[in-house]
Structures are given as structure tokens and as C-alpha cells.
Design brief:
This protein is of the alpha/beta class. The protein has 13 helices and 12 strands.
Amino acid sequence: MSDLVFVDCAGEPAAAPHAHARREVRLAGERVPVIDMHAHCAIPAAMALMGFRYPTTHNPARPQVLKVDEDQIAPRLAAMDAQGIDRQLLSINPFWYEADADLAREVVETQNAALADVIGRHGDRFAALGSVALQHPALAAEQLERAVRTLGLKGALIGGSVAGEELSDPKFHPFWAKAEAIGALIFIHPQGVPEAASRLRGSGGLGNVIGNPLETTIALSHLIFEGTLDRFPGLKILAAHGGGYLPSYAARSDAGIKTFPDTYQVPLKKPPTAYLRDLYYDSLVFTPEGLRHLAAEVGADRIVLGTDFPYPWTDRSVEHILEAPELSDADKVSMLSGLAATLLELVPQ
């Protein structure tokens, strides 16, 4: 088995937490399972194929963790237990979109086999999204089908763009067609906006803080306006970080069509904002008002819990939902695990 290590979305190793008793989350006196749909890991053997080393070296002050399988599992489970998370959906951010077909195939096969091995040993605590070489769409479609139907993975994580190309480009239609046909969950996770790198330099970590949600906004907008969601209406797409900025200003898209009709080049079956309720979103927004507003714009029944673990955005992801004043108990149960279990087709335990 390839070693698996747990990393944040920047590829940095996670700090090992202290052991905790497993927290049980309750709502109205009833035990509620919790599923985290946004959690990262890495496969060092696959990184090595691309000439990358684990851990990354751009932040050597971050604590390192052991690069062995079971020694990696224990601290991750301890962190999950402390927060009350029963199961995490593991995924790997793409770093292989520049690779040729042969190398990309090897990277993906290495990663997906390692993920399947972990799920085979710890299926009660983890599920996983596979990797695909989306720069080679036909190959990616094959890899997605194998990941889901042979390896037992739940879909795939893809970047918000592919080596500068939009996910709505017709070249990716074979991948989207396959995802729709087999009911795979596709998690769109941003990789930043390198075209804006010069403007995002300086204080504040803007490449991440602004750039990541901006790429998600761009990706989702293209999928709407280029007709991809009309062409493949059965897609199950999960958008990271609450969908970026799109849910907060989506009405401008409707107004733009009316104000500048000449820009409306692809006829759509419904207003742009209506497509927001065809997508799914993680709960990684940072205030009760942010979560209330996201639910108001996209529907509380389209939101799942996501932590971006082990990136240390929050250790209160469960409280973020439980303490939301304008959500019903049914909404909270759906966000904590109900919707996730449906999307992942998990068998109740």
C-alpha cells in the first residue's frame, strides 16, 4: 500500500492532536451522525512520480506527521472524535494537470489504489473521492468509472480549472457525461487564480483568502452560462467553501442578462440563479449570518458540513450548524449528515 498522509488544501502536513473521547452529537435528545464532506490527504508516492516531495517546503515551520499508514490514521481519528465527526470524505487536490497521459495515469492509479485501501480498512470512518486526469478527458472518464464501480470511491475531486481551461469547455463533455451516467459526486475544489497572482501578492494571504473562492465563482458561473448544467442536468456537483462568492451576488447574473442581453450567447432553460439550487455546497462560511444567507440563496437542503480539515479554519464546524438560529432541526440534521449520506449512498450503520 502507498503511504497516505493527511494534509491541508495547501499540501501542508497536519498537526497531530491529543487523543479525545469520541464526542456524540445530539439534537433534541437524539444522536445525530456527522459527516465531513471536505477533508484532505496526500499520497507521497504519487507526489514523487511528479517530482514533488512530501512534506512541501514552502512552510517548514508547520509540524510534520509520520508518513506511515496506521500512524497517520490514529491522529486523524482523534481530531475527528474531538469535533464529533463520525466520518470524513477524503480527497486530494490536483497537482498533476500538466502531466502527459502516461504519467497522469500512473499518478491517478497510485492515489486511487491507496484511497481504496484506506477505505477497505476503515470504511466505518472514511469514504473517499478519487482522482482523475481531467486534462485528458476521455482518460478521466475511464478513471472515474473505475474509481466508483471497481474501487468503491464515491466520485472525484477536480480543480476549478484545468491548466487554464474552464470546466465548461466542450472538451470536458465526455467526463461530465460519465459522471452523470454513473451518479458520481464531483467536488469542485479551487486551485486559486494564477492569472491574478500579481494582484494577490502581499499581506493577507490573498491568493487563498480571495483567490480560492474567486476561482469557484468563475467555474460555477461558466458551468451555468455555457449551458453545461443544462446539457447534463443529472450531475451531482459539490462546490467548496460555500460556493465561493456566487451565492452572495448571484442576482447580478440575472440582472446582467436583462441589462446586457447581447452578452447572453447561450440560451438557458431557466434564470442563472435557478441553477444554484441544482448544486451542493459545503458549510465553510464563517458566521451564523453567512450560513443563514447561504441557505436562503441555495436552500438549506443543498448544504453539507465541510471543514477543509486539516487546514485550521475552524474546530467548530458542528457548532456552526447546531447554533444557527434560523435553521430548523430538520435542516441541521440534513446538513450534519442526512444529505451527505444520500449523496454518497452510504448504508446506515
